[in-house]
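User: Hi! I'm working on a homework problem where we have to compare a predicted structure to a textbook description. Could you give me the structure for the chain below?
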Amino acid sequence: MSTHDEDECDERVKITIFTAADSKDSRTTVSLIYSIEVLYGPNAGIYGFAPEHRELRFHEALCKLPVIAGIIRAMKNRGQIRRGILELPAEVYKLYFDKFGNPVFNNDYLEETQQLEKPKPRTPEPAPVKTIPPPAVPQKKSLQSIY
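Assistant: Happy to help. Predicted structure tokens:
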């Protein structure tokens, strides 16, 4: 996969999409593209999109592909994460990879990133056990010291 010619077959990748609050209206939930994962070859890895390039409006060609369109339709609630494996047709591949197979979007090379995971629900920490010191017992005085 050193170069990608128009005659080559489609490329398989994994796309991660998540839902979050809209940056303009926190009451609205939107779907955003988090990363593209190269499954095979020398550039195998997960590459994240910059926050300013995550909105679906920047990825119209990708969103028209059946797998991605289905994932987007299925995502209704905030905080969901879905991944889809798909083959990128040559015309879509060119939007996300340079001629050497490096992940790129809008002339910006994508950075390797970590897999997006749902935040683990916080388990309440047990309240610290407070030890109450025993009540102070007055020292006994000898009868001689009292008189």
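For your comparison, note the following. Strands lie at 11-21, 29-38, 45-48, 81-88, 104-105, 108-109, 111-112. Confidence is low (pLDDT under 50) at residues 1-9. Good luck with the assignment!
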